[in-house]
Amino acid sequence: MKTQNVTVTAESLKSKRMKNKKRKRKFKGNFNNGSEENPRPAEEEISEISTRKRKRRRKSAGENRSSAKLEHNFMESSKYVEKQSQNAMTREPSKPPMSSLKPNNFLDKMRARLAGGHFRMLNEKLYTCRGSEAYDLFKNDPSLFNVYHSGYQEQMSHWPQQPVDVITKWLKEHSHSLVVADFGCGDARLAKCVKNKVFSIDLVSSDPSVIACDMAHTPLTESSVDVAVFCLSLMGTDFPDYLKEAYRVLKPGGWLLVAEVKSRFDPDNGGADPNKFVKALNCLGFNIVFKDFSSKIFVLFYFRKEKGRNIEGKQIDWPRLKPCIYKRR
Q1: Containing H/E element for 51?
Q2: Other CB atoms within 10 A of residue 167 CB
Q3: What is the pLDDT of residues 35-94, one digit of tens each?
Q4: Does residue 311 contact residue 284 with C-beta atoms inside 8 Å?
Q5: What separation, in Å, do the N-terminal and C-terminal C-alpha atoms of the chain show?
Q6: Which residue in 145, 142, 135, 152 sits closest to 203, CA to CA?
Q7: C-alpha of 185 from chain center
Q8: 201 contact partners, CB below 8 Å, separation of at least 6
Protein backbone atom coordinates (compact mmCIF):
# COMPACT_ATOMS: atom_id res chain seq x y z
CA MET A 1 0.00 0.00 0.00
CA LYS A 2 2.84 2.39 0.78
CA THR A 3 4.55 1.65 -2.52
CA GLN A 4 1.38 2.44 -4.44
CA ASN A 5 0.93 5.75 -2.64
CA VAL A 6 4.48 6.78 -3.40
CA THR A 7 3.96 5.95 -7.06
CA VAL A 8 0.76 7.99 -7.24
CA THR A 9 2.50 10.88 -5.52
CA ALA A 10 5.41 10.76 -7.97
CA GLU A 11 2.99 10.78 -10.95
CA SER A 12 1.09 13.73 -9.46
CA LEU A 13 4.30 15.69 -9.07
CA LYS A 14 5.30 14.90 -12.62
CA SER A 15 1.89 16.08 -13.88
CA LYS A 16 2.21 19.32 -11.94
CA ARG A 17 5.68 19.93 -13.37
CA MET A 18 4.32 19.45 -16.90
CA LYS A 19 1.50 21.93 -16.27
CA ASN A 20 3.96 24.48 -14.92
CA LYS A 21 6.12 24.11 -18.01
CA LYS A 22 3.08 24.74 -20.24
CA ARG A 23 2.20 27.89 -18.30
CA LYS A 24 5.74 29.17 -18.68
CA ARG A 25 5.64 28.52 -22.41
CA LYS A 26 2.33 30.39 -22.71
CA PHE A 27 3.51 33.60 -21.08
CA LYS A 28 7.31 33.54 -21.44
CA GLY A 29 8.50 30.95 -23.77
CA ASN A 30 8.17 29.50 -27.20
CA PHE A 31 4.82 29.24 -29.11
CA ASN A 32 6.25 27.57 -32.24
CA ASN A 33 4.44 24.24 -31.75
CA GLY A 34 6.36 23.47 -28.58
CA SER A 35 9.73 23.76 -30.32
CA GLU A 36 12.51 25.29 -28.24
CA GLU A 37 14.86 25.99 -31.14
CA ASN A 38 13.60 29.62 -31.65
CA PRO A 39 12.26 30.75 -28.30
CA ARG A 40 10.03 33.92 -28.46
CA PRO A 41 11.03 36.76 -26.10
CA ALA A 42 8.66 37.32 -23.21
CA GLU A 43 8.66 41.14 -23.78
CA GLU A 44 7.28 40.68 -27.34
CA GLU A 45 4.53 38.40 -26.13
CA ILE A 46 3.56 40.83 -23.36
CA SER A 47 3.48 43.70 -25.87
CA GLU A 48 1.19 41.73 -28.20
CA ILE A 49 -1.19 40.96 -25.33
CA SER A 50 -1.31 44.66 -24.40
CA THR A 51 -2.04 45.60 -28.03
CA ARG A 52 -4.94 43.15 -28.17
CA LYS A 53 -6.39 44.57 -24.96
CA ARG A 54 -6.16 48.14 -26.32
CA LYS A 55 -7.92 47.10 -29.54
CA ARG A 56 -10.69 45.45 -27.56
CA ARG A 57 -11.14 48.57 -25.43
CA ARG A 58 -11.22 50.85 -28.52
CA LYS A 59 -13.73 48.59 -30.26
CA SER A 60 -15.93 48.56 -27.19
CA ALA A 61 -15.71 52.35 -26.89
CA GLY A 62 -16.52 52.74 -30.62
CA GLU A 63 -19.56 50.54 -30.32
CA ASN A 64 -20.71 52.58 -27.37
CA ARG A 65 -20.25 55.82 -29.33
CA SER A 66 -22.13 54.42 -32.36
CA SER A 67 -24.95 53.30 -30.13
CA ALA A 68 -25.12 56.70 -28.48
CA LYS A 69 -25.09 58.45 -31.88
CA LEU A 70 -27.89 56.26 -33.22
CA GLU A 71 -29.92 56.95 -30.13
CA HIS A 72 -29.31 60.70 -30.51
CA ASN A 73 -30.35 60.65 -34.19
CA PHE A 74 -33.46 58.68 -33.35
CA MET A 75 -34.43 61.18 -30.68
CA GLU A 76 -33.85 64.12 -33.04
CA SER A 77 -35.90 62.53 -35.86
CA SER A 78 -38.70 61.78 -33.41
CA LYS A 79 -38.76 65.42 -32.33
CA TYR A 80 -38.83 66.55 -35.99
CA VAL A 81 -41.71 64.23 -36.88
CA GLU A 82 -43.67 65.37 -33.86
CA LYS A 83 -43.09 69.04 -34.79
CA GLN A 84 -44.20 68.49 -38.40
CA SER A 85 -47.31 66.69 -37.20
CA GLN A 86 -48.22 69.62 -34.97
CA ASN A 87 -47.67 72.08 -37.86
CA ALA A 88 -49.85 69.97 -40.17
CA MET A 89 -52.66 70.00 -37.63
CA THR A 90 -52.60 73.80 -37.33
CA ARG A 91 -52.19 74.42 -41.07
CA GLU A 92 -55.15 74.80 -43.44
CA PRO A 93 -55.61 71.91 -45.87
CA SER A 94 -53.88 72.63 -49.16
CA LYS A 95 -55.39 72.14 -52.62
CA PRO A 96 -54.70 68.85 -54.36
CA PRO A 97 -51.82 68.97 -56.88
CA MET A 98 -52.74 69.57 -60.51
CA SER A 99 -51.45 66.12 -61.46
CA SER A 100 -54.22 64.58 -59.36
CA LEU A 101 -56.82 66.52 -61.37
CA LYS A 102 -55.73 65.10 -64.70
CA PRO A 103 -57.54 62.07 -66.12
CA ASN A 104 -55.56 59.13 -64.80
CA ASN A 105 -57.84 56.16 -65.21
CA PHE A 106 -59.06 54.20 -68.17
CA LEU A 107 -62.61 55.60 -68.22
CA ASP A 108 -61.48 59.23 -68.20
CA LYS A 109 -59.07 58.59 -71.04
CA MET A 110 -61.75 56.84 -73.06
CA ARG A 111 -64.19 59.72 -72.49
CA ALA A 112 -61.57 62.21 -73.64
CA ARG A 113 -60.87 60.12 -76.74
CA LEU A 114 -64.57 59.83 -77.58
CA ALA A 115 -65.06 63.58 -77.12
CA GLY A 116 -62.10 64.23 -79.45
CA GLY A 117 -63.55 61.91 -82.08
CA HIS A 118 -66.97 63.58 -81.80
CA PHE A 119 -65.36 67.00 -82.29
CA ARG A 120 -63.50 65.87 -85.42
CA MET A 121 -66.72 64.50 -86.94
CA LEU A 122 -68.59 67.76 -86.25
CA ASN A 123 -65.68 69.82 -87.57
CA GLU A 124 -65.64 67.88 -90.84
CA LYS A 125 -69.42 68.26 -91.15
CA LEU A 126 -69.23 72.06 -90.73
CA TYR A 127 -66.56 72.40 -93.41
CA THR A 128 -68.37 70.21 -95.95
CA CYS A 129 -72.02 71.35 -95.65
CA ARG A 130 -73.95 74.53 -96.26
CA GLY A 131 -74.55 77.04 -93.49
CA SER A 132 -78.27 76.34 -93.45
CA GLU A 133 -77.60 72.62 -92.81
CA ALA A 134 -75.23 73.44 -89.94
CA TYR A 135 -77.81 75.80 -88.48
CA ASP A 136 -80.51 73.10 -88.56
CA LEU A 137 -78.08 70.55 -87.06
CA PHE A 138 -77.31 72.67 -84.01
CA LYS A 139 -80.87 73.92 -83.70
CA ASN A 140 -82.16 70.36 -83.39
CA ASP A 141 -79.46 69.41 -80.87
CA PRO A 142 -77.87 72.46 -79.18
CA SER A 143 -75.63 70.20 -77.05
CA LEU A 144 -73.57 69.47 -80.18
CA PHE A 145 -72.52 73.11 -80.21
CA ASN A 146 -70.97 72.74 -76.75
CA VAL A 147 -69.21 69.53 -77.82
CA TYR A 148 -67.79 71.27 -80.87
CA HIS A 149 -66.57 74.37 -79.02
CA SER A 150 -65.00 72.31 -76.21
CA GLY A 151 -62.93 70.48 -78.82
CA TYR A 152 -62.23 73.75 -80.63
CA GLN A 153 -60.88 75.36 -77.44
CA GLU A 154 -58.71 72.31 -76.82
CA GLN A 155 -57.18 72.62 -80.30
CA MET A 156 -56.67 76.38 -79.96
CA SER A 157 -54.93 75.99 -76.60
CA HIS A 158 -51.89 74.59 -78.45
CA TRP A 159 -51.52 77.64 -80.72
CA PRO A 160 -48.73 80.05 -79.72
CA GLN A 161 -50.91 83.02 -80.74
CA GLN A 162 -54.66 83.44 -81.15
CA PRO A 163 -56.00 85.40 -84.16
CA VAL A 164 -58.79 86.85 -81.98
CA ASP A 165 -56.08 88.49 -79.86
CA VAL A 166 -54.59 90.17 -82.95
CA ILE A 167 -58.04 91.46 -83.99
CA THR A 168 -58.72 92.65 -80.43
CA LYS A 169 -55.47 94.60 -80.44
CA TRP A 170 -56.37 96.15 -83.82
CA LEU A 171 -59.79 97.28 -82.52
CA LYS A 172 -58.26 98.80 -79.39
CA GLU A 173 -55.96 100.87 -81.59
CA HIS A 174 -58.98 102.32 -83.39
CA SER A 175 -61.99 104.30 -82.17
CA HIS A 176 -64.23 102.69 -79.55
CA SER A 177 -67.22 104.12 -81.40
CA LEU A 178 -66.85 101.62 -84.26
CA VAL A 179 -69.74 99.14 -84.35
CA VAL A 180 -68.59 95.55 -84.91
CA ALA A 181 -70.31 92.44 -86.28
CA ASP A 182 -68.52 89.24 -85.20
CA PHE A 183 -69.60 86.47 -87.62
CA GLY A 184 -69.09 83.04 -86.01
CA CYS A 185 -68.30 84.48 -82.58
CA GLY A 186 -68.15 81.19 -80.65
CA ASP A 187 -67.98 82.13 -76.96
CA ALA A 188 -68.21 85.87 -77.83
CA ARG A 189 -64.68 86.47 -76.60
CA LEU A 190 -64.16 89.50 -78.85
CA ALA A 191 -67.17 91.33 -77.37
CA LYS A 192 -65.81 90.70 -73.86
CA CYS A 193 -62.38 92.14 -74.66
CA VAL A 194 -63.23 95.48 -76.32
CA LYS A 195 -65.30 98.55 -75.43
CA ASN A 196 -66.95 98.68 -78.87
CA LYS A 197 -70.56 97.73 -79.45
CA VAL A 198 -70.34 94.19 -80.86
CA PHE A 199 -73.07 92.12 -82.52
CA SER A 200 -72.02 88.54 -81.75
CA ILE A 201 -73.45 86.13 -84.35
CA ASP A 202 -73.32 82.33 -84.47
CA LEU A 203 -75.37 79.23 -85.24
CA VAL A 204 -76.37 78.70 -81.59
CA SER A 205 -76.83 81.20 -78.80
CA SER A 206 -75.07 79.97 -75.65
CA ASP A 207 -75.14 83.53 -74.29
CA PRO A 208 -78.05 86.02 -74.21
CA SER A 209 -75.90 88.52 -76.11
CA VAL A 210 -75.30 86.11 -79.04
CA ILE A 211 -77.60 86.25 -82.09
CA ALA A 212 -78.39 82.71 -83.27
CA CYS A 213 -78.95 82.53 -87.02
CA ASP A 214 -77.62 81.39 -90.37
CA MET A 215 -74.72 83.78 -90.99
CA ALA A 216 -75.85 84.25 -94.61
CA HIS A 217 -79.08 85.82 -93.31
CA THR A 218 -78.60 87.97 -90.23
CA PRO A 219 -81.20 90.32 -88.66
CA LEU A 220 -78.79 93.29 -88.94
CA THR A 221 -79.93 96.21 -91.02
CA GLU A 222 -78.17 97.36 -94.17
CA SER A 223 -75.10 99.61 -93.72
CA SER A 224 -75.33 99.44 -89.92
CA VAL A 225 -71.83 98.32 -88.83
CA ASP A 226 -68.31 99.69 -89.23
CA VAL A 227 -66.30 96.44 -88.90
CA ALA A 228 -67.20 92.88 -89.95
CA VAL A 229 -65.04 90.09 -88.49
CA PHE A 230 -64.65 86.48 -89.65
CA CYS A 231 -62.25 84.80 -87.23
CA LEU A 232 -61.79 81.18 -88.37
CA SER A 233 -65.48 81.09 -89.36
CA LEU A 234 -65.56 80.78 -93.19
CA MET A 235 -66.41 77.10 -92.77
CA GLY A 236 -69.43 76.23 -94.94
CA THR A 237 -69.32 75.40 -98.64
CA ASP A 238 -71.44 78.52 -99.19
CA PHE A 239 -68.95 80.87 -97.44
CA PRO A 240 -69.30 83.47 -100.28
CA ASP A 241 -72.86 84.08 -99.03
CA TYR A 242 -71.43 85.02 -95.61
CA LEU A 243 -69.13 87.58 -97.22
CA LYS A 244 -72.01 88.98 -99.29
CA GLU A 245 -73.99 89.41 -96.06
CA ALA A 246 -71.02 91.23 -94.54
CA TYR A 247 -70.95 93.55 -97.56
CA ARG A 248 -74.66 94.26 -97.08
CA VAL A 249 -74.45 95.21 -93.39
CA LEU A 250 -71.21 97.23 -93.68
CA LYS A 251 -71.21 100.96 -94.08
CA PRO A 252 -69.37 102.39 -97.12
CA GLY A 253 -65.70 102.56 -96.13
CA GLY A 254 -66.27 99.92 -93.45
CA TRP A 255 -63.64 97.29 -92.58
CA LEU A 256 -63.72 93.56 -93.30
CA LEU A 257 -61.24 91.45 -91.28
CA VAL A 258 -60.77 87.79 -92.24
CA ALA A 259 -58.55 85.40 -90.23
CA GLU A 260 -58.15 81.84 -91.47
CA VAL A 261 -55.90 78.82 -91.03
CA LYS A 262 -52.82 79.26 -93.22
CA SER A 263 -53.09 75.82 -94.85
CA ARG A 264 -56.41 76.89 -96.45
CA PHE A 265 -54.46 79.45 -98.51
CA ASP A 266 -51.53 77.23 -99.49
CA PRO A 267 -51.93 76.43 -103.22
CA ASP A 268 -48.98 74.02 -103.10
CA ASN A 269 -50.95 71.75 -100.73
CA GLY A 270 -54.46 71.96 -102.13
CA GLY A 271 -55.31 75.34 -100.63
CA ALA A 272 -56.71 78.40 -102.38
CA ASP A 273 -54.51 80.96 -104.06
CA PRO A 274 -54.64 84.02 -101.77
CA ASN A 275 -54.44 86.33 -104.77
CA LYS A 276 -57.57 84.74 -106.28
CA PHE A 277 -59.33 85.17 -102.94
CA VAL A 278 -58.39 88.86 -102.88
CA LYS A 279 -59.54 89.24 -106.51
CA ALA A 280 -62.93 87.65 -105.72
CA LEU A 281 -63.47 90.03 -102.80
CA ASN A 282 -62.41 92.93 -105.00
CA CYS A 283 -65.15 91.92 -107.43
CA LEU A 284 -67.56 91.84 -104.48
CA GLY A 285 -66.70 95.45 -103.71
CA PHE A 286 -63.77 95.32 -101.25
CA ASN A 287 -60.28 96.78 -101.61
CA ILE A 288 -57.37 94.98 -99.98
CA VAL A 289 -55.51 97.13 -97.46
CA PHE A 290 -53.10 94.67 -95.89
CA LYS A 291 -52.25 90.95 -95.84
CA ASP A 292 -50.54 89.51 -92.77
CA PHE A 293 -48.74 86.19 -93.32
CA SER A 294 -46.33 86.58 -90.39
CA SER A 295 -47.89 83.81 -88.31
CA LYS A 296 -47.00 80.19 -89.02
CA ILE A 297 -50.58 79.06 -88.30
CA PHE A 298 -53.03 81.66 -89.59
CA VAL A 299 -53.31 84.53 -92.11
CA LEU A 300 -55.13 87.85 -91.78
CA PHE A 301 -56.71 89.93 -94.54
CA TYR A 302 -57.76 93.56 -94.02
CA PHE A 303 -60.29 94.91 -96.57
CA ARG A 304 -62.36 98.07 -96.86
CA LYS A 305 -65.72 98.40 -98.54
CA GLU A 306 -65.67 100.66 -101.59
CA LYS A 307 -68.02 103.60 -101.64
CA GLY A 308 -70.66 103.83 -104.36
CA ARG A 309 -70.00 100.37 -105.84
CA ASN A 310 -72.88 98.43 -107.41
CA ILE A 311 -72.28 94.63 -107.38
CA GLU A 312 -75.79 93.36 -108.07
CA GLY A 313 -75.91 90.67 -110.78
CA LYS A 314 -72.13 90.36 -110.89
CA GLN A 315 -70.67 86.87 -111.43
CA ILE A 316 -67.70 86.19 -109.16
CA ASP A 317 -65.20 83.33 -109.56
CA TRP A 318 -64.73 82.21 -105.96
CA PRO A 319 -61.75 79.98 -105.15
CA ARG A 320 -62.40 76.80 -103.18
CA LEU A 321 -61.09 77.10 -99.63
CA LYS A 322 -59.46 73.91 -98.44
CA PRO A 323 -61.40 72.33 -95.53
CA CYS A 324 -59.47 72.27 -92.27
CA ILE A 325 -60.09 68.62 -91.37
CA TYR A 326 -58.20 66.75 -88.63
CA LYS A 327 -56.92 63.25 -89.19
CA ARG A 328 -59.08 60.48 -87.79
CA ARG A 329 -57.51 58.33 -85.08
Answers
A1: helix 42-90
A2: 24
A3: 444 555 555 666 676 777 677 777 666 655 555 555 555 455 555 545 555 554 554 444
A4: yes
A5: 118
A6: 135
A7: 26
A8: 181, 182, 183, 184, 185, 210, 211, 213, 215, 218
